[in-house]
Amino acid sequence: MLLNNPDDYNYWRDEKLANALTKLDNCVVEIRNPLALTTAEKDQIQRLCQHNNFALIQTQPQADYSHSIVQLNQQLGLIAPDNHLFVSNDTLAHITPTSDKQQGEFIPYTTKSIGWHTDGYYNPLEQRIRSFSLFCVNPASSGGENSWLDNDILYILLRQQNPEAADLLTRTDAMTIPAHSENGKILRPKSVGAIFMPDHNQLYLRYTQRKKYVQFTDEVVAAVALLDDILAKGSAYHFQHLMAKNQGIICNNVIHKRSGFVDDKSNPRLLLRGRYFVKV
């Protein structure tokens, strides 16, 4: 197994670091028509996701953004969407500030900053989110910058600094997300699992810094603090980008965060997000 076989891990680590890109300009794919990807465009996106677990895309203005993004994702094999709370009929979540009280309890639908997390960290492990796309239809007046880091690189940085901490975060009881319920009805069951775990001999990360609704076993608290420290300090492998209109990211559920923003209520920030159970 990748995580507990030193030879397999060392080979994977060396190959990962050798192929990892650190300049954002090298990770951008220009899309001529998202409804009909060229072979070169598709290959470039998949190659970037294989080596760096993400690709940035840039398109021309679209008549129907939802349709275009769904069609683009399907051409990449992203055909198993997660129909989580607030997903529209187009299988995408429309991430924009809301006046709806129930939806407004979830930070993505506000102007607040969001700490480091992977998408669907609260999902049952059999419904783990392996990829997502996030596309900017309209940016905020100011702010709303996204930051992210390849999960594989995060694990490598942690293991280089403290192998014991990396091992502790693979405990199957490391992180618990309590059930989410309203008016006595459970909308989402309790989720218990590791933070780093093997997934078809690849690495999977399930994590959030939103500690208010998260429980860690006592044994892993110090390791979690070290993980947070690595995320906060930054590295050559950390990326930051304020997405402009017609830009997006397609990724294998990399750990990411968002800064707070100021919005124009007459022209609000809108991003379209799709979550999927398969990798790119």
From TrEMBL:
The keyword Kinase does not apply. The keyword Membrane does not apply. InterPro entries: TauD-like_sf (IPR042098), TauD/TfdA-like (IPR003819). SUPFAM superfamilies: Clavaminate synthase-like. Residues 28-273 form the TauD/TfdA-like domain. Pfam families: TauD. Keywords: Oxidoreductase. GO terms for molecular function: 2-oxoglutarate-dependent dioxygenase activity. Signal peptide: none annotated. This is TauD/TfdA-like domain-containing protein. It comes from Bathymodiolus thermophilus thioautotrophic gill symbiont.
